[in-house]
Amino acid sequence: MPERHTKQSSRMNLGKLAAAGVGVALGLRALVRSRISFQDKTVLITGGTRGLGLLLARGFLKEGARVVICGREESTLERARTELESLGGEVLAVPCDVTDPVQVEAMVSSVHERFGAVDVLVNNAGIIQTGPLESMTLEDFEEAIDTHFWGPLYTTLAVLPEMKRRGAGRIVNISSIGGKVSVPHMVPYSASKFALVGLSDGMRAELAQDGIQVTTVCPGLMRTGSPRNATFKGDHEKEYAWFYVCGSLPGLSLNAERAGRRIIEACRRGDAEVLVGLPAKMGAVARALAPNLTAALLAYVNRMLPQGSQTERHRGDESETPLTRSWLTELSRKAARRNNETEVPIH
Q1: Within 10 A of 57 (CB to CB), how many other CB atoms are there?
Q2: Which residue of 63, 239, 268, 329 could cross-link 232, Cys pair, CB 3.0 to 4.6 Å?
């Protein structure tokens, strides 16, 4: 009996090992199959008129995709459309405020009329609000949530029926390291980006059975030139200075073109999540492994930041000082001109 029992146990163990091997093989095969080509695919990029969104639009055009961009400012949208069309390929530019579900539905309908169903959705539209907590109002939090949570949800729900019907699709949600680590003086931004990470992770788990891959992107600071169009409160000139300088220096910030390529590759593979840039990776790991130490360090950083309770909003380009016009921000100023963040773009 003991010998027979041992033989049966051995057979069972071998069976389990074989099953595990088959599972691993099927998993690897699925990973290989998940890579897609963007040739002749329709890619919709919200907030695609400038900054990272425009960089992604250029990248997808080079991949042979039909690109749709949307934005709220007609002049910025028109400049982006003109530039993208000059690169070749098919481009559609649609005025749309993604915080309005009616406008989102109308935009997706216009995409269907021109190109058919959306194959890839990139939820990129975003705003940046910087200032001490006491300078922020409920409207600031509502605006951040509307843009970073409801906007991606509205656009996703608009394209989802066709993706499910075809059993295929890619959705990329551009969150931030601010959605992993809440950054001082950016509380509305971070809170809304945390919400987007939760939404994105949950959608990935539920939509995988429908052949739809959802990717959450959490980049650190990137040199896109976007601080010029961000809003600043409190001591707005000092707030703009620390944010703009940190977002311009190599090491603290990432080359935006490189970040764009990484995001497109993550979309191609159907990755669950991508942390873009070493600071973002280090911040996420630190928050997960040493939350108390991370909280203490962030509290120390907060004490070094400018203080003030003024609730008036000022754009970045209204908060310039000699420091923000110095060599410290040269890389970001060049990026702003390249990426349609100014009224006089250069390429």
Answers
A1: 30
A2: 239
Is the separation of the CB atoms in 84 and 69 below 8 Å? yes
Across residues 249-262, what is the average pLDDT?
92
* Interior angle at CA 124, CA 57 and CA 238, nearest 5: 110
Distance CA 271, CA 175 (A): 14
Name the nearest CA neighbour of 260 among 66, 123, 56: 56
Q: Is residue 74 part of a domain?
A: yes
Q: How confident is the model at residue 342 (pLDDT cuts 50, 70, 90)?
A: confident
Find the mean pLDDT for residues 187-208. 97
List 92's β-bridge partners, or say none: 68
Q: Taking Cα atoms as reference points, which of 46, 43, 37, 52 lies closest to residue 89? A: 43
**Rounded to 5°, angle at Cα 290 from 286 and 292:** 120
The answer to the question of residue 28 being in a domain is: no
Catalytic residue among 154, 189, 240, 244: 189
C-alpha–C-alpha distance, residues 57 and 307, integer Å: 38
Would 284 be classed as within a structural domain? no
CA-based angle 268:226:173, to the nearest 5? 30
Q: What is the pLDDT of residues 89-127, one digit of tens each?
A: 899 999 999 999 999 999 999 999 999 999 999 999 999
pLDDT by residue (tens digit) across 38-53? Answer: 999 999 999 999 999 9
Range of the domain at 53: 36-278+294-338
346 falls within a domain: no
Which structure tokens are listed for 317? 């380009």
Structural domains of the chain, count: 1
316: domain CATH number is 3.40.50.720
Assess whether 244 carries a catalytic annotation. Answer: no
